[in-house]
């Protein structure tokens, strides 16, 4: 058992659970005190993160998301990955073909997330992968009732303000089905008995609704965990300036909305590094990435260094100056950031070092999808992206 309620004593360590939940790439935990209280009172912790099924899996969807799954696994939390086929159907992913979405969910997408979890130090065999339609078929009327209960406690305007999770602005025309997306997402949480819903910062609005309606409708208030979103590689100077200004403004909502619009996205492949990219593709994409000299705020490549390369790193990160041959070794991300700010590290040299490191980090995924059992899955999803 992961957690015991015997005599109200938890088998988990409250301090370690909170520490794991707050560790980067976490941006927000609502709230640490409530999570600690759940552990201290022996409440079994059940986490989940949900994914739409579409396109190829990039660093944000794969490694950043799975880092938190690995963190929570390490302290004994039960983790779940929700393959949201019906939500993907609502958003007309993969041509709006539900059968295709289900096949990709159980094939390529599941494999990509399992490999990503293994790369970041987690155990995919200790995470439950749940297909949305199978959950709904199992729960039947109970799930439909939960959707209605959530909908009755949520206004239309509130739902429309939450459509950023769909990758759309509030002003865009939505189908009626897309308005059901948010109530369904909230109902998913309680239908699975989840008390740690997890997602990127773009999922925050839906999770806040879950917190607000949870106690009244389902008898408990979940703890929401939101991780960092990586900016796309191909920022232009204007978008980057808007992002930095939004971050420095102190307006967290403005910053979140700005970042959502320019995050790394599989729908914009030039902005994204996919977990199975070849070494040549990695070098090419990194080489073309936006990386202004001396600028450390929201620099896409420094973001990758901070959240991926230096995560769990035991050896120094080495950058070689192409012109002089000088080698600089960095033991922490902070050291690298300071050197880049002082222009002691040139963007071209950083790009070369990052390309090398990412090629090594992603080698297991690349091998799995080009030489191993994942090859047929990758071929299928690439074909679907061409024809749909």
TrEMBL record:
<keyword id="KW-0547">Nucleotide-binding</keyword>
<dbReference type="InterPro" id="IPR050489">
    <property type="entry name" value="Tyr-tRNA_synthase"/>
</dbReference>
<keyword id="KW-0436">Ligase</keyword>
<keyword id="KW-0648">Protein biosynthesis</keyword>
<keyword id="KW-0030">Aminoacyl-tRNA synthetase</keyword>
<feature type="binding site">
    <location>
        <position position="188"/>
    </location>
    <ligand>
        <name>L-tyrosine</name>
    </ligand>
</feature>
<feature type="short sequence motif" description="'KMSKS' region">
    <location>
        <begin position="263"/>
        <end position="267"/>
    </location>
</feature>
<feature type="binding site">
    <location>
        <position position="203"/>
    </location>
    <ligand>
        <name>L-tyrosine</name>
    </ligand>
</feature>
<dbReference type="InterPro" id="IPR023617">
    <property type="entry name" value="Tyr-tRNA-ligase_arc/euk-type"/>
</dbReference>
<feature type="binding site">
    <location>
        <position position="181"/>
    </location>
    <ligand>
        <name>L-tyrosine</name>
    </ligand>
</feature>
<comment type="function">
    <text>Catalyzes the attachment of tyrosine to tRNA(Tyr) in a two-step reaction: tyrosine is first activated by ATP to form Tyr-AMP and then transferred to the acceptor end of tRNA(Tyr).</text>
</comment>
<comment type="similarity">
    <text>Belongs to the class-I aminoacyl-tRNA synthetase family. TyrS type 4 subfamily.</text>
</comment>
<comment type="subunit">
    <text>Homodimer.</text>
</comment>
<dbReference type="InterPro" id="IPR002305">
    <property type="entry name" value="aa-tRNA-synth_Ic"/>
</dbReference>
<dbReference type="GO" id="GO:0005524">
    <property type="term" value="F:ATP binding"/>
</dbReference>
<feature type="binding site">
    <location>
        <position position="266"/>
    </location>
    <ligand>
        <name>ATP</name>
    </ligand>
</feature>
<dbReference type="InterPro" id="IPR014729">
    <property type="entry name" value="Rossmann-like_a/b/a_fold"/>
</dbReference>
<dbReference type="GO" id="GO:0004831">
    <property type="term" value="F:tyrosine-tRNA ligase activity"/>
</dbReference>
<dbReference type="GO" id="GO:0006437">
    <property type="term" value="P:tyrosyl-tRNA aminoacylation"/>
</dbReference>
<dbReference type="InterPro" id="IPR023678">
    <property type="entry name" value="Tyr-tRNA-ligase_4"/>
</dbReference>
<protein>
    <recommendedName>
        <fullName>Tyrosine--tRNA ligase</fullName>
        <ecNumber>6.1.1.1</ecNumber>
    </recommendedName>
</protein>
<dbReference type="GO" id="GO:0005737">
    <property type="term" value="C:cytoplasm"/>
</dbReference>
<feature type="binding site">
    <location>
        <position position="185"/>
    </location>
    <ligand>
        <name>L-tyrosine</name>
    </ligand>
</feature>
<keyword id="KW-0963">Cytoplasm</keyword>
<feature type="binding site">
    <location>
        <position position="48"/>
    </location>
    <ligand>
        <name>L-tyrosine</name>
    </ligand>
</feature>
<keyword id="KW-0067">ATP-binding</keyword>
<dbReference type="Pfam" id="PF00579">
    <property type="entry name" value="tRNA-synt_1b"/>
</dbReference>
């Amino acid at each position: 058992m992961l957690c015991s309620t015997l005599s109200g004593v938890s088998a988990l360590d409250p301090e370690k659970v909170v520490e794991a939940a707050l560790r980067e790439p976490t941006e927000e935990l609502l709230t640490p005190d409530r999570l600690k209280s759940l552990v201290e009172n022996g409440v079994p912790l059940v986490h989940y993160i949900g994914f739409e099924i579409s396109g190829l899996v990039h660093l944000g969807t794969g490694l950043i998301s799975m880092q938190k799954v690995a963190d929570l696994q390490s302290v004994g939390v039960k983790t779940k990955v929700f393959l949201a086929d019906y939500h993907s159907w609502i958003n007309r992913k993969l041509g709006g073909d539900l059968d295709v979405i289900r096949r990709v969910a159980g094939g390529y997408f599941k494999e990509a997330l399992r490999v990503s979890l293994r790369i970041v130090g987690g155990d995919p065999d200790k995470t439950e992968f749940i297909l949305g339609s199978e959950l709904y078929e199992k729960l039947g009327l109970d799930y439909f009732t939960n959707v209605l209960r959530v909908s009755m406690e949520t206004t239309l305007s509130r739902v429309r303000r939450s459509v950023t999770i769909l990758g759309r602005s509030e002003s865009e025309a939505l189908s009626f089905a897309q308005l059901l997306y948010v109530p369904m997402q909230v109902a998913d949480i309680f239908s699975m008995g989840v008390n740690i819903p997890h997602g990127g910062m773009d999922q925050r609005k839906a999770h806040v609704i879950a917190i607000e309606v949870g106690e009244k409708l389902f008898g408990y208030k979940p703890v929401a965990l939101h991780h960092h979103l990586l900016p796309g590689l191909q920022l232009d100077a204007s978008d980057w300036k808007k992002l930095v200004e939004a971050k420095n403004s102190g307006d967290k909502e403005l910053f979140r909305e700005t970042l959502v619009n320019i995050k790394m996205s599989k729908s914009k492949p030039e902005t994204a590094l996919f977990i199975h990219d070849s070494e040549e593709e990695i070098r090419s994409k990194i080489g073309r990435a936006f990386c202004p000299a001396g600028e450390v705020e929201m620099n896409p490549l420094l973001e990758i260094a901070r959240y991926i390369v230096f995560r769990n790193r035991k050896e120094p990160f080495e950058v070689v100056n192409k012109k002089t041959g000088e080698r600089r070794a960095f033991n922490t991300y902070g050291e690298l950031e300071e050197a880049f700010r002082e222009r002691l590290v040139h963007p071209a040299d950083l790009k070369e070092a990052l390309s090398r490191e990412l090629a090594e980090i992603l080698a297991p995924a690349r091998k799995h999808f080009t030489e191993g059992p994942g090859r047929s899955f990758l071929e299928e999803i690439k074909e679907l992206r061409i024809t749909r």
